[in-house]
Amino acid sequence: SSSTPETKNQSSKTLKKSDSTSSNQTTKQATSAEQLVVVNQCEIIEELKTRILSLEKKVNGLERRVEELDRSLGISKQISTVLSNEVDRLAQYSRRSCLLFSGIPLEENEKQTTLYKKVKNVVVKDLGVLGDEFEFEVDKMHRIGPIDAESQNQNVIVRFRSHQFPSDLYYKRRKIKNKNIRLKPSLTKKRTQLLLTASESF
Fold first, then answer.
1. Per-residue exposure over 8-33, b if at least 16 CB sit within 10 Å of its own CB, e if not
2. Which one of 45, 60, 91, 186 has the largest count of C-beta atoms within 10 Å of its C-beta?
3. pLDDT tens, position by position, for the chain (202 residues)?
């Protein structure tokens, strides 16, 4: 049977209504998807903000810790310097009764008695000290330090019983006739280096 014009119009309206409903549903779905994406992005951003704040707190904590360690290190260095200076002072104090003789000829297989006579000869003949006084004042003596490559001599350190006697000898040191022989105070390693640096500067 053939369709009437009235039936055709009704079918056309039904199709248009169906298309409109389908279009509306698609639009709603797209809007929902966009909203979901926006929500997810907001959640991600909030999570990142939370993480950033947490990291900033950790960084601030580490910076404070570094500052505390710097202060502690500075205090430790100050304490170390004070202790080092005090040890050096005490070491130098213990050397007050010592003198270094440089330029005393070194012999192969040198005996202690031979070394004693060489030092005594310088002190008695050049510095005008009585032999008995020298013998009384001397406590110990021995060679010390490296052998000089040029002169093949080695320093002699002499410890005396009193502090005044070596001081008097040092005051008279310019009277020594042999200019290769010199009297020097017995200094700690630190003070020897300071003296060397100072002498090179002038």
1. eeeeeeeeeeeeeeeeeeeeeeeeee
2. 186
3. 455 656 655 655 555 555 555 555 666 665 666 766 777 788 888 888 888 888 888 888 888 888 888 888 888 888 888 889 999 999 889 899 999 999 998 988 999 999 999 999 999 999 999 889 999 999 999 999 888 888 888 999 999 999 999 999 999 998 988 888 999 999 988 888 888 888 777 6
Q: How far is CA 168 from CA 134, 159, 171, 185, 187, in A?
A: 12, 14, 5, 12, 17
Contact 175, 128 (CB under 8 A): yes
> How far does Cα 73 stand from its chain's mean position?
10
Tokens of 136: 């009384």
Beta-bridge partners for 101: 156, 183
Residue pair 160/138 in contact (Cβ under 8 Å)? The answer is yes
Which residues have CB under 8 Å from 176's CB, separation 6+? 122, 126, 127, 182, 183
- Integer Cα distance of 94 and 97 in angstroms: 7
Query: Cα separation of 125 and 127, whole Å?
Result: 6
**How do the residues of the chain divide into helix, strand and coil, expressed in percent and rounded to 5?**
65, 10, 20
CA distances from 111 to 89, 117, 141 (A): 34, 10, 12
